[in-house]
Amino acid sequence: MNRVLEIEQALRQLPSQERLKIARWLLEDLHEGSLASAAAKCAGDKGERNLSLQDYSARRRRIFGNKVLPNMVPAARAEDRW
């Protein structure tokens, strides 16, 4: 006989309070297991590749030179009607 069916039948014979305790334990165990596997996966990824952030100020200087660009957000907000 299938073990899952045997477990299911045994759980159905328990009182509802006991079934709820087992269900909570199972959910916590599954959650902890998924967190542990995700943490292990992240730990493995850190050593394999180095992430570098783009230097946006250097990119802007390369495109526009030393020009001072106006901040268009306050101008756009002044034009909007509230």
What's this entry about, in short?
The protein has four helices and no strands. With 82 residues, it is mainly alpha-helical. The radius of gyration is 29 Å and the shape is elongated.
List the helices and strands and how they pair.
Layout: H1 3-13, H2 16-48, H3 56-64, H4 72-79
Name some characteristics of this structure.
single chain, 82 residues, mainly alpha, 4 helices, elongated
Task: Kindly describe this structure.
With 82 residues, the protein is mainly α. Helices cover 74% and strands 0% of the residues. The chain is elongated and about 75 Å long. The termini are far apart. The model has no long low-confidence stretch (mean pLDDT 79).
Helix content: over 70%
Rg, Å, rounded:
29 Å
H-E string: HHHH
Low-confidence stretches: none
Note the overall shape: elongated
Q: Please work out how many helical segments DSSP would assign.
A: 4
> Given the helix and strand composition, which structural class is it?
mainly alpha
Strand content: under 5%
- Sheet of most strands: none
Distance between the termini: 70 Å
Query: What is the residue-averaged pLDDT?
Result: 79
Find the count of extended strands (DSSP E, 2+ residues). 0
